[in-house]
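Q: What would this complex look like in 3D?
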Amino acid sequence: MKPKKRITIYDIAEKLNITASSVSRALNNSNHVNEATKNLVLKTAAELNYKRNLLASNLRMGKTKTIGVVVPRINQNFFSNVIAGIEDATYQKGYNLIICQSNESHSKEVKCVNTLMNQHVDCIVISVSVESDDHTHLANVIEQGIQLIQFDRVAEELETLKVINDNETASMEAVVHLIQQGYKRIALLEGPQNLSIFKQRKTGYLNALKKYNIPINNELIIENAWTKELGAAATRKLLSLPQPPDAIFASTSDFSALGVLDVAHDMDIKVPSQLGILGYSNEAFTEITTPSITTIDQFSVHMGKTIANLYFEEMENKEVAVTPKVISIKPQLIIRSSTLKNK
Amino acid sequence: MKPKKRITIYDIAEKLNITASSVSRALNNSNHVNEATKNLVLKTAAELNYKRNLLASNLRMGKTKTIGVVVPRINQNFFSNVIAGIEDATYQKGYNLIICQSNESHSKEVKCVNTLMNQHVDCIVISVSVESDDHTHLANVIEQGIQLIQFDRVAEELETLKVINDNETASMEAVVHLIQQGYKRIALLEGPQNLSIFKQRKTGYLNALKKYNIPINNELIIENAWTKELGAAATRKLLSLPQPPDAIFASTSDFSALGVLDVAHDMDIKVPSQLGILGYSNEAFTEITTPSITTIDQFSVHMGKTIANLYFEEMENKEVAVTPKVISIKPQLIIRSSTLKNK
DNA sequence: TTTGAAAACGCAATCGATTGCCATGATTTA
DNA sequence: TAAATCATGGCAATCGATTGCGTTTTCAAA
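A: Here is my prediction, written as structure tokens for the whole assembly.
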């Protein structure tokens, strides 16, 4: 559209017969302008419907009050909640959010990060994609002097601020819960092990078994079962074993757990009496299934707020690189029907 | 952090002993530079890890290749899907997205819109909040020469591009489906009538009844039942009537329908034989409940893509205001167990 | 060898806002 | 009354990239 001449500080200056300098000072509430002129400027600015050109301002100031967020998928419950949390906290400070999704693709992730750097965002918040093994693009961010916060899925070797869940403990507690409910052969559906979150969840599982002296059975550990379909397939495989499991911990996601439940229904296997099911993420639907699914809540909105606050406390207007720091949020086991064997 | 001197075209120019003009032209692939120097510039730019400063470029060019999106809630399925669709389509064209949530508050919506205008986004895409009755802020957008696209919840009196669902037809088809299943007393849970989408859904309901000569009974129409809790409360009220309904169309959302289902479970009312339930939106969970819930799919991701394409076809680089236009996407009735009375 | 046109590139202004430095006039202090 | 201090506000440079216009260089045609 015609970019219709917008009102600038020069227009205001001209109208009041002063210079743009004074207008700028007045608008920025500097104390180097007369109170009277300040009011006059504010009044005319309002009258003319003046809007500060942030492009010009940001160029001059070297900061944009903008935070870039890169997530694998915007429309995945966990991520959209984190984003909502970030938005909520940053909005109050007058910051804007630019949001990109990597679609779990490494190359798109790199492009997103580059775009955000071009945009001169003050900080990049990222949860890396599954494909990501190479993290030079993130190292690049730091090198360019842009703040970086990683969350949930993090590149561990990079020394940055990180906000994560205590996956290991949560996972361990979950498995302990299963053991205490009397389940003996507990299977694990695990996610891509190049992502630390999935590695940690596996460690938690192993630790729980160790603690209770339960032998580890590799037959019961299925790799890469992190969608509903893969979860279902894994379940079919598991249940056809000579000695099938009596509980399945879908450590990857609730979607995977849902796949498990579907197969159990199909095969007429009773949940939780014959098979216990435990998911991860506390997706809304886990409360609604029959039976409802025991899962782990990650406090996603809170996580978003934590990320934002971390930026404001540690990074905003800081001249030096921040000291790396990891904030770990302890997830909570939400016990529902799908694991209550001895109720 | 220290804004660590970034490489500019001047640095490249200096290194090659040419002027910034030539560098700029080379980087923009202008044909007013020697092929040799062009290659030289590109090579050194890569070596020095040059990144164009979009702030400066945008300021000069007067456009930002950025689209602002305002939705009531980022983490609501429908909206996050629409956003994902928009992102997908705009990303390919090198555009960025700035996303805000109004939290259903009019004042925050106004602030969001103002921020986006300050940011000089090329286009604002909005779905208005429930509270919105006053639309001067949107009129303002147009007046400032910024493109505006409304979707889903639209201010009808404003002449803009609009992408909506054909709520009326969808709603009518849904009710017809109920009638054909043999339901006689069909109740309606309606949303705030200041939003046209809810008005249209009501009209669809009324039209269906009219078509089949079913008397309209105001007792069976409950206002403002658009959350799970309100849906549950409305259901309790409806089911305690002397002549309770035998079907409930939760035209506001699937959440509302879920509330209905909960109450039915509590009161030991059989779904679908004693009570039919029909929702709206095709939230993921509707497939999972017992029984699964009949609902209406809005093709949300597709809607997002449509919005983006509309921008590129009708608005990008256009000098004149676009002629208003409404694109209506026909939602689809997804028939599931909760309404299959005579199966 | 001269002329002309095209190719290549430099100069300087521009997009708006910000800010250090300086000038003016007013007010205060000696 | 003179000198010092302070409050205001103007001037001009700056942030990087872009581009119209003008100048220089190159090369071919006359």
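A: To summarize the key features: Chain A has a mean pLDDT of 93. Chain A touches chain B through 61 residues (CB under 8 Å).
Q: Very helpful, thank you.
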